[in-house]
Amino acid sequence: MELWRLWKEEGKVEAKKELIELFLPLVDFVSNRLAIGLPRNVSKEDLNSYGILGLIDAVEKFDYLRGLQFETYASWRIRGAVIDGLRQGDWVPRSVREKAKKVEDAYQKLEQQYLRSVSDEEMSVHLQISIPEFQQMLQDIAVTTIGSFDDPIRDEEAETRLSLLVDERAAKPEDTVNEVFLKEMLAKSIERLTEKERTVVSLFYFEDLSLSEIAEVMSLSPSRISQLHSKAILRLRGGLSRFKLQLMQNS
């Protein structure tokens, strides 16, 4: 607290430097989590460089008098800085993004048609590729699912962009209905995930385990966990896309 006081109230640059050095391990923690599944051409040094910029930004903007936990706030800022840096560097080829959109659209169409979770076999038939080719496609597009529902929104709060699907500031009655509908759609989408996919989502987003740690817990390979994560995110995207379409049709 004394360091924060010296930096925020007295503008002591040395105090700011000490705070940055004190929380540097957060950069390594966040970078290591994001590094899983990234292309080999993305170096750990690049991730750390982006992350340090996020940490500096967090130290500069954090209001220590509000009683918030800096580690949580800084982790979101670091994660956001790394993802922004990667996106600006055009680290995902257009062909990979096109594959991700193709798979997402296929999940949306088939699960709307069958009203259940579709298998890899059904996806492969629909995409007119073999099952190994489909699994390789999931591996290729795993990098596009980083931060899909987990991007930071507000500077001082650990809220995700998922919360912006409904405008919380609007007081219109239909917004309350939309919010309830969104929760129902998201719940239904989660129910359609396979047991393994639900486990991966739960461990990754709620228990804060890395994909490699989840692989150990579930006794599966990291690549298989990456595939399960990708499928889960694409299924959820498809469900939320259906929600958006229904809102547009009803508006």
CATH topology of the largest domain: Arc Repressor Mutant, subunit A
Low-confidence stretches: 148-177
Shape: elongated
The largest β sheet comes out as:
none
Distance between the termini: 50 Å
Q: What structural category do the secondary elements indicate?
A: mainly alpha
- Radius of gyration from the alpha-carbon trace, in angstroms: 20 Å
CATH architectural type of the largest domain: Orthogonal Bundle
Note down, in words, how this protein is organized:
The protein is mostly helical. The chain folds into two domains: 87 residues, Rna Polymerase Sigma Factor, Chain: A (Orthogonal Bundle), CATH 1.10.1740; 157 residues, Arc Repressor Mutant, subunit A (Orthogonal Bundle), CATH 1.10.10. It has twelve helices and no strands. α3 packs across α5, α9 runs antiparallel to α12 and α10 crosses α12. The longest helix is centred in the C-terminal third of the chain and has 29 residues. It is elongated. About 12% of the residues have low confidence. This is FliA/WhiG family RNA polymerase sigma factor. It comes from Paenibacillus mesotrionivorans.
In short:
With 251 residues, this protein is mostly helical. Helix content is 69%, strand content 0%. It folds into 2 domains: 2-88, RNA polymerase sigma factor, region 2, helix turn helix motif (Rna Polymerase Sigma Factor, Chain: A); 94-250, Orthogonal Bundle (Arc Repressor Mutant, subunit A).
